[in-house]
Amino acid sequence: MRDYTDMMNMAPAELVRHALDCAKVGILSIALVEALAIQLDAEAAEATQAARLREELEEAEQRAAMWQEECRALQRQMDRTYG
User: Per residue of the chain (83 residues), what is the pLDDT tens digit?
Assistant: First the structure.
């Protein structure tokens, strides 16, 4: 059985494999549960941040599209005026 520090330093996929191996033989430790909980919390925080960044990107894309259309309208106006 690995100790708490080992489990906290595992990559997520490795931690999951270790947990599954422990579950197969009926070993469940507080350290393992805590390491998994911390990993899940980190994954949830990353998912929340990714969702926020996705929203910010969509807003930026909308603003860019509006500016692009405004630039095109100004170009058409300049073409009519000076062209």
Answer: 677 788 888 888 888 888 888 888 888 788 888 888 898 899 999 999 999 999 999 999 999 999 999 999 999 999 999 97
DSSP secondary structure letter of residue 9: T
Q: What is the DSSP letter of 26?
A: T
The three-state secondary structure class of 29 is: coil
What is d(CA 83, CA 22) in angstroms, rounded to the nearest whole number? 76
Other beta carbons within 10 Å of 32? 19
Which residues make Cβ contacts (< 8 Å) with residue 36, sequence separation at least 6? 15, 19
DSSP letter at 3?
-
Contact between residue 35 and residue 8 where contact means Cβ atoms under 8 Å apart:
yes
